[in-house]
Amino acid sequence: MRSSLFDAPSADAIAESLTARARVRLATWSDAAVADLLADTVFHERKRLESDEAPEAYVALVDRAARCLRPLGRAEMDAVVFALVDAYAREIHNPFSARTYGFATRILPGALTRLLSASRGRDLVLGDFDPQSRILIDGPLDHIRRLAEKGTVILAPTHVSNLDSPLIGYALYAAGLPPFAYGAGLNLFSNPAMAFFMRRLGAYTVDRRKRTRLYKETLKDYSTEILRRRTHSLFFPGGTRSRSGRLERKLKKGLLGTGLLAWQENLREGRPDPDVFVVPLTLSMGLVLEAETLIADSLAEEGKQRYIIMDDEFSQTRTIASFVRRYLALDARVHVVFGEPMDVTGNRVDAEGRSLDPAGRVVDRRGYVTDRTGTVVFDEQRDHVYTERLAAHLCDAYVRDLVIQSTHLAAWAAWEALRAARPGLDTWRLVRLPPDQRVVRRVDVEQRIHAALPGLAAYRRVGPASAPAILDDAIRHFASYHRKRAIVAEGADVRLDCELTLYYRNRLDGHRMTQ
Amino acid sequence: MKLGIVADREAAETYAALIRAAGNEPLAWSGAAVPDGVPAVAQFSGAVDLWLLAPAPDQLRPTLDALRPGPADRIVLACRGFEPDTGMRLSEVVEAVSACLRVGVLAGPILPGEVRRRSPSAAVCASRFEDVAETTARALHSPLCRVYPSADLLGVELSGALVEVVSAALGAAKGLGLGVGTQALVVSRGIAEGSRLAGRQGGDARTFAGLAGAGELIACLGVPDHPGLHRGLALARGEADPALAALCARLLAFERDLPITAGVLRVARGEVRAADALQALLARDAREEFEG
Questions:
Q1: Those residues with Cβ within 8 angstroms of residue B174's Cβ, 6 or more apart along the chain or in another chain
Q2: In chain A, helix, strand, coil percent, each to 5?
Q3: Is A358 touching B (CB cutoff 8 A)?
Q4: Is A308 exposed, middle or buried (0-12, 13-18, 19+ CB in 10 A)?
Q5: Which of A227, A438, B65, B168 has its CA at 20 to 30 Å from residue B290's CA atom?
Q6: Which of A175-179, A188-192, A476-480, B197-201 has the lowest mean pLDDT?
């Protein structure tokens, strides 16, 4: 199965396409609207460039944009916009290398095995690591492979850790799926070796520090353009790692909506394989590498401002290696569940790529975007509602496909026991309880797990069957990696680290739990 | 523009008159009432620009099963309440049984007798899709009927359901022989209840004060044979009303702080007499008039 990444366009071609899109858009804008766009760019970029480094040519371009704010005429304003788009396009796009991909796929399983079983630490207990037995892939893979041949696939995963990307890369390879393009934060390119591979394996560069409208529009145009060119793409629709531990509930509609736009453009142009499909992907693991930093960030007032965390556990290679070794030493598994494929409005699709109504009848989805003569009608407001529906269906799939682990269930039960023991305290006060009050009776936790189990039959779950064994399993996991332990056994009680307990408990926030 | 109507005879004639007054062409589904002079068609898909459906809530699902709307269709629901068996909002039923996503709701005091007399009226059309609300406005808007578009689909649907309850409370007040002051009290506190209901559910708190709420209540006061008033008169006579009780229970599942609805529920279940329910409501402490 061949992805169009193998025929990836050059940076010149991409820059030309995105500039052409900007040209079409600007043709309908007033002078004042273009001036606003440039003012937005100058304001945000000058502020950013006070602390960030940038190529001289780019700084000069921002200065040129600033000069446009004095009336210099529409032609100059347009020229600056196109020059900025050209610069952004070249920064975003990275040339995929079939050679590097071939090399990586040949060495990946062996490298993963060696990496994860190498004797580097005193705590090492692993023998031979077999990725296939530890990274469990599930879902309608034949269906998805077929769709990847019929059209373009958008993969929309949950996101908790920076380890998700290599994990998904492996899962795609192991599932026999082609490589996917994906947006990677500029900070992830800081390691030269990592950057070398990422650039050549389908990663395009996303600089989240650039907050200008023009940059965001260019990024969306880039995504639309590569989807239109049949490049399978991966978006983390939550935008960033879940800080609270919750499954994604509010998705970013901007990139997600580019699938709908690409499909409409393909229809309008009469392309032979116009369809775009969306596949939810739910990652489940008992422990999360960056849990301590993420929940602290979620609880901190400045959490919302701190979109890019540069100094978390992922930035320390030794910590990653330690986490992976300790996690695997627990005989723990990572579950990668591909969900039911959908069309770009959220309807299920069959193996032929046809959309189905709720009764399973085939429907002609072109009617969503065409008038009675069959002509494609672009309507941004309508498309926003369609994309909201798609997002809602993705969120439902995440809940449905999550593989509930002992750590989630035990943390949920322990948190509920703590809340019941401290009635009237809100989440914030519970998290700030003094250490001597962070204790609940073990039997209370077990009872809550026991009561929840029948209701969880409707969901995916792994781990022991009985409540005491589930709690023990969770305690064993929590003891293996984090500096602080979410739950520790203390005789007839268990002691909680409230922040970590909350983090792992939150994973079940969207599930119907029986108290 | 062509519009397909599914409604009982009186409503179908009313909508056909409004559609013609707006310079458009009505068609009627052959599986329901076909007014004189309105062409009948067996299927709407591909034949009309907009479907105007006004079946009883329990008949919406079978109607959709028969008509099978698809992605290209636009539906406006001119019926109100919840699906009895599932408690779903009626727009949710459309999405649950079909691939039609472009759905709107029409609500407001459009009274058949007044349309026949060519007395102007008005309605609100709410949809998450601007295109649906605007198409409905173009389809019906004329000097005979003003149609206001709205994005608050949830608010208008909840308003339509609550109007049934508050109009029954008004009928009960009339049945007990109480005066216009009491009726004004029920209307104004009904509006407060509607604002709270819609606002707390994520809708627009102002919606109930518009045509879908206050407009309907004011109109029902002046229509002696209004079905809501009739239900209320029956409640005042001590007759239970299980369907009304189910509607109240569904609304209270959305929002518990609905005193009139809670009172009507007890009367409709036959648990208390209407006069006692009224006394219980009047015995409550008064709170700030516009408390959230």
A1: B183, B229, B232, B233, B236
A2: 55, 10, 35
A3: yes
A4: exposed
A5: B168
A6: A188-192
**Chain B: closest CA distance from residue A279 (Å):** 19
Q: Is the dihedral of CA A191, A173, A179, A155 positive or negative?
A: negative
Q: Using CA atoms, how far apart are residues B290 and B278, in angstroms rounded to an integer?
A: 21
∠B202-B205-B210 over CA atoms, to 5°? 130
* Residue A208 in this model has a pLDDT that exceeds 80: yes
Q: Are A363 and A357 in contact (CB under 8 A)?
A: yes
pLDDT at B82: 95
- What is the average pLDDT across A184-196? 76
A63 close contact with B: CB closer than 8 A: no
Q: A135: which strand partners? A: A334
Inter-chain contact B72–A379, Cβ cutoff 8 Å?
A: no
Question: What does the mean pLDDT of chain A come to?
Answer: 86
- How many other C-beta atoms lie within 10 A of the C-beta of residue A100? 15
| More confident of the two residues B207 and A1 | B207
The residue in chain A having the minimum alpha-carbon distance to the alpha carbon of residue B1 is A372
Q: What is the number of alpha carbons within 13 Å of residue A116 lying toward its C-beta?
A: 22
Which of A220-229, A439-448, B121-130, B215-224 has the least mean pLDDT? B215-224
Question: How sure is the predictor about A167, in pLDDT bands with cuts at 50, 70 and 90?
Answer: confident
* pLDDT tens digits for range B180-210: 999 999 999 999 999 999 999 999 999 999 9
In 3D space, the residue among A397, A408, A182 whose CA is nearest the CA of residue A291 turns out to be A408
Q: How confident is the model at residue A330 (pLDDT cuts 50, 70, 90)?
A: low
Instruction: Identify whether the C-beta of residue A228 lies closer than 8 Å to the C-beta of residue A148.
Output: no
Which residue, among B75, B101, B103, would best test binding to A if mutated, counting the most A CBs under 10 Å from its CB?
B101
pLDDT higher than 90, residue A186: no
Q: Which residues contact B247 (CB under 8 A, 6 or more apart)?
A: B81, B82, B161, B164, B165
What is residue A123's predicted lDDT score, i.e. its pLDDT?
41
Q: Do B131 and A365 touch (CB under 8 A)?
A: no
- B102-107 and B74-77 strand pairing: parallel
Q: Judged by CB atoms within 8 Å, which residues 370-409 of A form the interface with B?
A: 370, 372, 379, 381-382, 385-386, 389
Interface contact B46, partner A, CB < 8 A: yes
This prediction has a pTM of: 0.88
Rounded (10°) angle between helices B153-175 and B90-97? 140
Closest among A141, A108, A144, A98 to A2, alpha carbons compared: A98
DSSP, res B286: P
Stretches in chain B below the pLDDT threshold 50 = none
Which of A382, A387, A393 to mutate against chain B (most B CBs within 10 Å)? A382
